[in-house]
Fold this protein.
Amino acid sequence: MRDHRPRQQVWSIVPPHMLEAIAQNGTPEQRQMAMATLSADLGFRAERLVAEGASGTSVASAGAGSPHKNRSVFSADNGTSLPGTLKRSEGAAATGDAAVDEAYDGLGGTFDLYWEVFGRDSIDGNGMALIATVHYGNRYNNAFWNGSQMVFGDGDGVIFNRFTIAPDVEGHELTHGVTGATAGLEYHDQPGALNESLSDCFGSMVKQRMNGQTSAQADWLIGQGLLAAGIHGVALRSMKAPGTAYDDPTLGKDPQPDHMSRYVNTSSDNGGVHINSGIPNKAFYLVATGLGGNSWDRAGPIWYRTLTGSGLSATASFADFAKLTADNANSLYGSAVRDVVVQAWRDVGIDLATVASWYYDKAVLSTFTSPHSMNAWAYIEDLGWRKIQPLTPDGVTNMFDLLTEAQASGRKVHVYADGSLIYQAYSV
Amino acid sequence: MQIIFEISGGFAPTPGLNAPRTIDTAAIDPARASELESIVRDVEFFELPTRLNTTNPNAADYLTYAIKIKDGDRVHSVVLTDPVSDEGLTRLIDILRMISA
C-alpha cells in the first residue's frame, strides 16, 4: 500500500519575484494561483539546490558578493504534505501567526549569523532559498530537516509547546543543511553526534546573537520554552551542563553525558546521536567561555572552519574533530587559543596528546640528542618539541639524521606525530 | 489484536517517551479499538514491506516509528520514518501516539 502517486510536475515561466508580487497584490484568484505555484516551485527548488549542495558545488568565500536572504514560511495546516501553503515570503509583514513569524525570524537570525559572521550565503553558500513548514501534523511533537527544508510541529501542548518557540531550534535545523552541504557527517554514532552537536553549537550562537548575549551571559540551553507547563525541566538540552536539562516522570531524565567516561553505547537514536552530542557540546561551551566575549567571535569561527574545511571526513570521530579544532584554533588565533581548545577537549575526556596524525610540509626548527645519543627530539613547525620514536626498526638515528638534515637544508618534512612523539618522518 | 508501538529519534528523544508501548485492542475503548482495526485493515498492514520509506541521506531529527501487530496467528512489523505521506498510516500513528501518551 505504498504511495505510488507520481510527483506533481510544476511548469512555470513566471519568475518567482513576479509570483510573489501577485501573491501579495493580485485578485483573490490570482493570489491563490500564484501562491500554489510558489509553494510547489520552492519545494522543487529546495530539492534541486540540496542535490547541488550534496554534489559539492559552491561554498562562498567570506564576505564575497551580496547576500541572498530568501525566506519562505509555509503551513501544512496540520497535514503532512510539504511544503504546504505559503504564508510569508521574504520582506512580507508579520502574519500574526506566532509559528509562522517565529520561524521567519529564526531563519533570519540564522541567515544573518552565517552571512555576517562567516560570510556564508545561506545553506549552500550560494543563496539557497530557506524554506520552513509550520503546523506540520496533528499535535506533532517534533521538528526535523528533511534534506531540503525545515519542518516544525505545534507540539501537543501537554509535553511540548510549538517547536518554533526557540530560535536555536531554527538555527539547529538549518545547520543540518549546512552540514549536509559541506562535511556530510553521517547520521549515526560519533559522526552523527558531531552532526547533532554542530547544529546545537550554531543554533546556540544564533540565539545568543539574536539576544545580544556574551558567552558568559548566555544560558546555553537548547529548546528553552519548548517544554509545556508542568513538565519538570528547563529545556531539551544544556550545553553548559549536559544531562541536567530535565528530570520528569513523563520524559525521564536527560540522558546526555558530559564526558567520554560516560559515553552511551546504544543502538537507539541512530547510535545516540542526540545523546552523546553532549560531549562535544560541552567542549564548545568550555572553549567559548574560556575565550570570553561572544561565542561567535573566536569559538564560532574555529568550529565553522572545522565544519567547512576539507579535513573533516563524513565518518569523523570526536577525536578527529577535536584535533581539527585545535589545528584551526592555532592557524586562526595562535597557540594560546589552541591551548584553550586542547584543554576544553581534555576536560571532556579527549586528550589530543594521544591522537596521532600526519602533519604535512612542516619545517624542522631545531633538533637535540641526549648524551650517548640514546634519545632524540625535534622541534617541528606548529607542533613544538616531539620525541623521536620510529615505528620501524631502523632506529632513532636514521630519523634524527633525516630531521637534522632537513633543518640544515631548509627542506620541509611530513611527520606522523601525536602530542609527544614523532613516529614517522619523510623529507619533501 | 495486540500492537507494540515504539517511537525513536526526533529533535528531542527522551527516555520516557521512547520506551515501547503495548496496546491490546481488547483493553481499550471499543470505538477506538474498532477504528484501529479498521485502519490496520484499510492500509493492508500485513502486506506492507517491513521498511516502508527511506530518508534523504542529509535528513536529520526525523522520528522513526516501529509498529508490530499480532492478530490471531498473523504477526507483522513495519518501520517507517517521517515524513509519512499516506493518510491511513498517518492516522494510525496519530492514534497509537494518543493512546500511548
Notes: The CA atoms of residues 79 and 137 of chain A lie 5 Å apart.
